[in-house]
Amino acid sequence: MSTYYILEPACNTSETGSQYPQVQKMAPEYNYKAPNSVYALSRAVEKFPDFSPNLDYFIVHGKAKLTDLLSVAPIHGGFLISNRFKLLLEKFHLAPHKFYPAKVYHKKQFHEYYWMHIICNLTNLVDYPNSTFFFYLNFSHNLGYIAIASKDDYEQKKEKVKKDNPGKTITIWAEKIKLNSDFDTSLHLFEIGGFDSNYYISQPLKEAIVAANITGCHIAPAAKLF
């Protein structure tokens, strides 16, 4: 059986510095409301956008350090990475993604980076009866478990709990996820989506990241995925 890990930006380490996230804002005159802004790109969750995003430029906080993977507040749905990290990732079989050139400003210098925008939903490859789901309040409180028989059952029950709790942030989330036999085991980086927000990497990719001393990464065993 393959071993998987969760990849995310590191927080408060000697590599990253004490400030988290490392990037908290864009350039002073940046237009967040523009149709090609980081906000617009973050909303592209089902298909890649038909515009070239304006990623000029990300500001690294003065108390943060520059790393190959940067934690970033103004955008989500992927990773802000150095060219060094991009070149390593390109050697592996990855979930659907696009690399967009980005500029990063740190200590009065500009650096060439990339936003790796990932669009991946594998919820149709989950073995629902053998996975574990629960009601999730404010993405912080487990309100109890619920049996889910299929993806359709999940969608119906998620809508019902939303309807039954107006004004509340409540959904159905996964505690343990079992993937079925249709899952492509050759994938080295992917996300499940829907009821899980993690990005997963394979053992070979984890080893390559460590061997190349790619900085700014927090890698932990994916205990919930089997």
What does this structure look like?
The protein has 226 residues and is of the alpha+beta class. It folds into 2 domains: 156 residues, no CATH class; 50 residues, no CATH class. The protein contains 4 helices and 13 strands. The strands form 3 sheets. A 6-stranded mixed β-sheet has the order 2-3-6-7-5-4. It has a 4-stranded antiparallel β-sheet with strand order 11-12-1-13. β4 and β5 form a beta hairpin.
What topology does this entry show?
Blueprint: E1 4-9, E2 23-26, H1 38-42, E3 56-60, E4 69-70, E5 78-82, H2 83-89, E6 97-106, E7 109-118, E8 132-137, E9 141-146, H3 151-164, E10 170-176, E11 189-191, E12 199-202, H4 203-211, E13 217-221
Parallel strand pairs: 3-6
Antiparallel strand pairs: 1-12, 1-13, 2-3, 4-5, 5-7, 6-7, 8-9, 8-10, 11-12
Sum up the structure in keywords.
4 helices; 32% strand; four-stranded antiparallel β-sheet; 226 residues; six-stranded mixed β-sheet; alpha+beta
Structure, briefly:
The protein is an alpha+beta fold. 15% of the residues lie in helices and 32% in strands.
Write down how many β-strands occur, each being a DSSP E stretch of 2 or more residues: 13
- Rg over CA atoms, rounded to whole Å, is 19 Å
Strand order of the largest sheet: 2-3-6-7-5-4
* Tally of individual domains: 2
Give a quick account of the main beta sheet: strands, pairing sense, barrel closure: 6 strands, mixed
Tell me the number of helical segments per DSSP (H or I, 4 or more residues long): 4
Order of helices and strands: EEHEEEHEEEEHEEEHE
pLDDT < 50 runs, ≥5 residues: none
Beta-strand proportion: 25-35%
- In one word, what is the shape? globular
